[in-house]
């Protein structure tokens, strides 16, 4: 009987490993979603201070639970599908956009060899996912069969094409220095000094381009609320709108991580800071 008991025992031992991997990914996604939900509240608070408005103030202590109320409102609301739209793709495209945004975090690195998947060409993978998310936005306006959404999708297509080309030309300067597309190599090359001190002008352009890429104020040109009635997502509401709304913040949070790794040395402080601290705060 031992000839079939041994393989069965080995299979039983391998099951918990797969469960641990699945649970690890689920916990990472839930934590990232919770962090991004809190970032929406922080952004609204900051914008209200800049524009001299009250902002979220009533739900919870000084509006601290406003993002939970917004999530419940969006997920409880019913879904309305326009009569003239392509119903299959109208429902599918937001789910694809949400899946692409969660896929961003397979490319993330939290420390030395601390990542969900080991990817060698991190910058290329991030660029491809960003382009794929832009395609989802463009197709949203097309399959809605609405003139406002279609105009916004065309505008977004032209904008994203220009941004991706310009962003690639900027990032390639950093790639020439490190001779690699891997995030770990970027961190290793910044052990002495961060690249932001070397590429000050390029870093400013990369930061502005990332704001354009992620549709953040004051560069939220893809939505253009005043001209195109919330842009490409005008026909969406409830759960499907929440997927796009969450996707934009996933995009923003991921590119913030990319900036911290590519320009600010990731999880390593530059060596001159260590020397500065060790030698009683005198640079030698």
List keywords for this structure.
single chain, 284 residues, mainly alpha, 2 domains, 68% helix, globular, disordered N terminus, NADH_UbQ_OxRdtase_su1/FPO
What does this structure look like?
The structure is a single chain. The chain has 284 residues and is an all-alpha fold. It has two domains: 1-76; 81-282, no CATH class. It has eleven helices and no strands. It starts with a helix and ends in a 6-residue tail after the last helix.
Compile the SSE list and pairings.
Layout: H1 2-50, H2 66-76, H3 87-103, H4 122-144, H5 147-178, H6 183-189, H7 195-198, H8 200-213, H9 225-228, H10 239-262, H11 271-278
Helix pairs in contact: 1-10, 3-4, 3-10, 4-5, 5-8
Outline of the structure:
The chain is mainly α and 284 residues long. It is 68% helix and 0% strand.
CA-based gyration radius: 22 Å
Give me the secondary-structure category.
Answer: mainly alpha
Could you give the order of the helices and strands? HHHHHHHHHHH
**Average pLDDT:** 76
- Shape category: globular
| Percent in strands | under 5%
DSSP helix fraction? 55-70%
Number of helices: 11
Count the beta strands: 0
Distance between the termini: 73 Å
Q: Structurally, how many domains make up the residues? A: 2
Q: Major sheet: size, sense and barrel closure?
A: none
Taking pLDDT < 50 over at least 5 consecutive residues as the criterion, the unreliable ranges are 1-10
Protein name: NADH-ubiquinone oxidoreductase chain 1
Transmembrane segments: 15-42, 88-105, 125-144, 165-186, 192-212, 224-246, 252-277
Family: Belongs to the complex I subunit 1 family.
Catalytic activity: a ubiquinone + NADH + 5 H(+)(in) = a ubiquinol + NAD(+) + 4 H(+)(out)
């Amino acid at each position: 009987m031992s000839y079939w008991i041994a393989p069965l025992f080995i299979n039983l031992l391998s099951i918990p490993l797969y469960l641990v991997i699945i649970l690890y990914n689920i916990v990472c996604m839930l934590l990232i979603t919770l962090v991004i939900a809190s970032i929406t509240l922080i952004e609204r608070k900051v914008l209200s201070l800049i524009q001299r408005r009250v902002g979220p103030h009533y739900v919870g202590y000084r509006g601290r639970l406003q993002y939970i109320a917004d999530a419940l409102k969006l997920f409880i609301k019913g879904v309305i599908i326009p009569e003239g739209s392509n119903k299959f793709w109208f429902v599918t495209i937001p789910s694809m956009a949400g899946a692409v945004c969660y896929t961003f975090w397979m490319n993330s690195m939290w420390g030395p060899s601390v990542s969900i998947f080991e990817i060698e060409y991190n910058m290329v993978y991030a660029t491809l996912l960003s382009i794929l998310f832009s395609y989802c936005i463009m197709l949203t306006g097309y399959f809605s069969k609405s003139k406002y959404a279609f105009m916004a999708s065309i505008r977004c297509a032209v904008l994203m094409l220009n941004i991706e080309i310009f962003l690639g030309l900027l990032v390639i300067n950093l790639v020439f220095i490190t001779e690699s597309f891997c995030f770990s190599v970027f961190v290793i090359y910044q052990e002495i000094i961060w690249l932001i001190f070397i590429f000050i002008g390029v870093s400013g352009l990369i930061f502005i381009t990332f704001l354009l890429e992620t549709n953040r104020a004051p560069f939220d040109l893809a939505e253009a609320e005043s001209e195109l009635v919330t842009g490409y997502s005008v026909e969406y509401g409830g759960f499907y709108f929440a997927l796009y709304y969450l996707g934009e913040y996933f995009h923003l949070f991921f590119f913030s991580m990319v900036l911290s790794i590519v320009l600010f040395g990731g999880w390593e402080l530059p060596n001159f800071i260590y020397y500065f601290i060790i030698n009683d705060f005198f640079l030698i």
